[in-house]
Amino acid sequence: MISDEYPNDTSTSPTTLGGSTVKLHLYVTDVDATFSQAIAAGAKVTMPVENQFWGDRMGSLLDPFGHHWLIATHIEDVDPSEFQERMDAFFAKQASGEA
User: Fold this and answer.
1) pTM of the predicted model, to two decimals?
2) Rounded CA gap, 19 and 40, in Å?
3) CA distance 94 to 58
4) Exposed (0-12), middle (13-18) or buried (19+): which is 59, by Cβ within 10 Å?
5) Tens digits of per-residue pLDDT, 42-87?
6) What is the rounded average pLDDT of the residues 5-31?
7) Which residues contact 54 (CB under 8 A, 6 or more apart)?
8) Strand runs (DSSP E) across 15-80, as ranges?
9) Which of 23, 35, 58, 60 is the least buried, fewest Cβ under 10 Å from its Cβ?
């Protein structure tokens, strides 16, 4: 359960604690619409929505209370024979500083 901070109980926000060790990963029907709705409600983008090598369209947010959210829509099933090549290309791009 996620709730607002409640000082008279044990519900302390990640912001008060200085961060969180938890990231919530949520699959939705339309990641772009959900992402826009979250931003309109005060969330901050930590990674823009993009197509990912493993077949999801995903982005990440930090909500106003300090909770980290990964929001995704599955867009394709990646053939196992293609997965390694896609992953290698992704990490090569990361290592080169292009990402």
Assistant:
1) 0.81
2) 22
3) 17
4) buried
5) 999 999 999 999 999 999 999 988 999 999 999 999 999 899 999 9
6) 86
7) 78, 83, 86, 87
8) 23-27, 44-51, 56-62, 68-74
9) 23
